[in-house]
Hints:
The complex is a heterodimer. By secondary structure, chain A is α+β, with helices and mostly antiparallel strands. Chain A folds into 2 domains: 12-24 and 107-179, 2-Layer Sandwich (Gyrase A, domain 2); 27-106, Heterotetrameric sarcosine oxidase (Alpha-Beta Plaits), CATH 3.30.70.1520. Chain A is 23% helix and 34% strand. Chain A contains 4 helices and 11 strands. A 6-stranded antiparallel beta sheet of chain A has the order 1-2-8-11-10-9, covered by helices on one side. In chain A, strands 4-5-6-3-7 form a 5-stranded antiparallel beta sheet. In chain A, β10 (146-152) and β11 (158-163) form a beta hairpin. Chain A is globular and about 55 Å long. In chain B, β39 (778-782) and β40 form a beta hairpin. Chain B is elongated. By secondary structure, chain B is an alpha+beta fold. The model of chain B has no long low-confidence stretch (mean pLDDT 96). Chain B contains 21 helices and 40 strands. Chain B folds into 4 domains: 11-89 and 221-288, no CATH class; 92-219 and 307-389, FAD/NAD(P)-binding domain (3-Layer(bba) Sandwich), CATH 3.50.50.60; 424-474 and 569-663, Gyrase A, domain 2 (2-Layer Sandwich), CATH 3.30.1360; 711-808, Aminomethyltransferase beta-barrel domains (Elongation Factor Tu (Ef-tu), domain 3), CATH 2.40.30.110. The A-B interface holds A 1-6, 25, 30, 32-33, 98-100, 102-108, 124, 127, 129, 144-146, 163-166, 168-169, 172-173, 176-177, 180-181, 183, 185 and B 41, 72-73, 76, 79, 81, 408-410, 413-414, 416-422, 440, 480, 482-484, 560, 562, 564-570, 610-612, 631-637.
Amino acid sequence: MSDLKSFYEGRAADANGVTVRDAGLQGMITLRGDLANAKLKAAVKKACGQAVPAARRAVITGGRGAAWMSPDELLILVPYAEAAATAAALALALKDQHHLAVNVSDARAYITLTGAGVDEIMAKCAPVDFANFAVGEFRRTRIGQVAAAFWKDEAGAFHIVAFRSLGDYVFDLLATSAKAGLVNL
Amino acid sequence: MEQTAQLGGRAVVDGAEIDGQQAEDWVAATHQALAKMDNVTIRTRMMGAGVYDHGYVIGYERLTDHDPQLDGPRHRLWRIRAKQIVTATGAIERPLSFAGNDIPGVMLAGALRDYLVNWGVSVGDRTVVVTNNDDAYRTALALQAHGLGVPAIIDARSAPSGDLVAAARAAGIRVETGAAIAKVMGKTRVTAVALAAQAGEGGVLEDIPCDAVAMSGGWSPVVHLWSHCGGKLNWDAERAMFRPDPKRAPTGAAGEGFVVTAGSASGALTTGEVLTDAFEAARAAIKAAGGKPKAGKAPQVTVVAEAPLEPVWLMPQGASYELRAKAWLDFQNDVKVADVQLAAREGYESVEHAKRYTTLGMATDQGKLSNINGLAILGDALNTDIPSVGTTTFRPPYTPISMGSIGGAARDDLFLPIRKTPIHGWHTDQGADFEPVGAWRRPYAFPRKGETVHDAVTREILNTRENVGLLDASTLGKLLVKGPDAGRFLDMLYTNMMSNLGVGKCRYGLMCSENGFLIDDGVVARIDEETWLCHTTTGGADRIHAWMEDWLQCEWWDWKVYVANLTEQYAQIAVVGPKARQVLQAMGTDMDLSKEALPFMQWADGRIGDFDARVYRISFSGELSYEIAVPAAQGRAFWDALLRVGADFGIMPYGTEGLHVLRAEKGFIMIGDETDGTVIPQDLNLGWAISKKKDDYLGKRAQERSHMSDPERWKLVGLETLDGSVLPDGAIAVAAGQNANGQRNTQGRVTSTYHSPTLGKGIAMGLVHNGPSRMGDVLEFTKGDGTFIKARIVDQVFYDKAGEKQDV
């Protein structure tokens, strides 16, 4: 398939040492089921190489991993090209029990926020205590006026997931906030 | 957070001596020491606007008001979560209530002193000071020290005695004790005050010429931030003030207090008291936040002995009605002593009622200037004391904050998030005329150069009927419903059966609320044994998703069903018209798109061109129609490819108005046009879509109630004007006679109305009393300008009644 387009076609914006980037297409699978179930745990491990994360945590490295969405829902991350096959593999592994595994890669905007002071940019946009937001923590909340989820990686960068139709809003809000600069806390 | 531009509060102006230093030097040194600390952030021109649950504080920072040339935002709103909050909000001086206290030139003594010391502004050459406390003597002394005249200090107390009083006397200032201002003379400017005895009723002893009056009725701690979240107050009769009760602080999640007041905000009056109280407050807050305060002691202050004040609520105490009617309590809302007394006489005994009757302390004042004086007057009128009267409620913000600070970045393009389909960019490039649908902007039509919007709509419709049209239908809701109980679940949500829908097939369904009213419609596709895909209306996608989750989480929590909102996973494009199949075949496909292999109301997966497609043979236009879902990332390329390949077949995109007219020509209903929250499926002759076999579905019981099954309910019909013109939207069909209110009786209304390019005339649908049994009847509809237009009741399907065109 040629000419795949992410929401902002890979656009990036720099301001005050912070970069907001449309991080392109990222494979994402919504998995719902009994997260304590051994079969599900094994299937998740096989699908993304990570164990089922604890509540409000994400275990993601190099675009592979899992994030805790709710007591019965995970977001599984794999490379975009593998998403459909991974969803099918999950469904097959769990066919004997109640579950839902569905590819939602195209329904999402995936944005990264890197640079010094990103905590402050995020603090302007989301009702979260970023002073106490740990690496590997995952949060479903809102950015500005719309729903979003994010986690912080080892390097302190933020990875943000939003609805594709609103990706430009989230991007532009973060870019605007970065442009306004840090408030020198 | 410091509300003003400078730290240190009144101490600098009042000239205290702290730890052997002048207040100004001590404040500067302390500021410097704090600024050097890594764990201290100081922000000036920033007001604590409100204190809320769980240590949530709103700060309002004014960044460039003082220097508009500066770059950056003008105001900024801070949202802070604090373990502990120390409010050092100071105190506000109270006016005295005497006649003419609103005349220009009458000012609070502290304010007059600030003007003089901070800004070098002389309010008047001759200032009379009127007071019930020692603090106002500082104003008199400061004025005199600056070479300005103080004709007299009028002190309501009979024997004032503190150090400041002595200093004033020593400086040769005339001090009148047990005295009052009977009234202020002057109109646009103070010219004199009339001296009287405070104990009397206003008999004038002497006129004292002057051009300013400095008044002080004592100080009220600023308890707003303390009180916003529930901190309680005690009345201190000796100091005549409400003071925060440290035992009844605003409490957090574990019942612990999270606000501590410091200094004047606690009710401390002298610099020594203020510093001791603040020192203890800081220690208490540090401890409560889990820290360990360093050893130390409060700064030492050279004591200036001050005598207590004497509460004075009206001056003179027996002032006549004429004087009371000119004695202001609330300067901002124009409330006088006489007004509050009238409120009490009228029976507004509760302080909240009296406040609303008189507007005392409302709006910008929020009780700052007027509260205590007003309460005292009300208490006196009710023959009770101030604590029995109580206070009104303190509400955030402390002073008004700008809308801009609240809105923040939400302006211009960020004001309203607008949802965009993967094809939105193309629509914009074409100069499409947009309309809002839910949070989306959908193209209404695509006018070409020199074309009006109406022309474009006409062209798009005719081309779709004759050749082939293209619609961006990506916004339609797509809810995936899966699980062993999914069929049973959908049977409850839809009025018709969905559990028996065959895999690979599609069925149109209706959803009703528990009250029986039609709330959404759409085509459901059976994906596999356990999975259904429910299409909803564009505006209904999120609402219906939430509706499904509501039932699954709250009512049928033991049903095994999962729902996922896949609306945005796909770009969905409708290829519509007699040449639709030819276009798709020309795209190159591994699918058999013939009528036999993929009949009407079925779906199939396959490749179309270079794209992963799911093809639904459904039609909202009456034409041969394929709605094709491709992953959103492929959406734009798919759209471009269809336009390119379809060019040979005369393909043209059409917008939502074309969509509306096409469906109206076919008599299809539209949620939001034919429904308005009061319409049930039976009203729309949709009984065929209501299962008789099912025991239950949401809305079933309600639809059996007498009013819902009433044959007199208005029902859907088609309408055609006799002259071929277009009926006005929402027009009412009039009936003979008048109702009980003298209004013209009605018998129907228009729900959808358009010019049909296909038929070359106006067509409409409407709900009409006994409509379906009155075919051919002519009704009169209002035009809104007092005239009427005649329309005939006809079948609602104007085009291809047999449905042959969509089934080829």
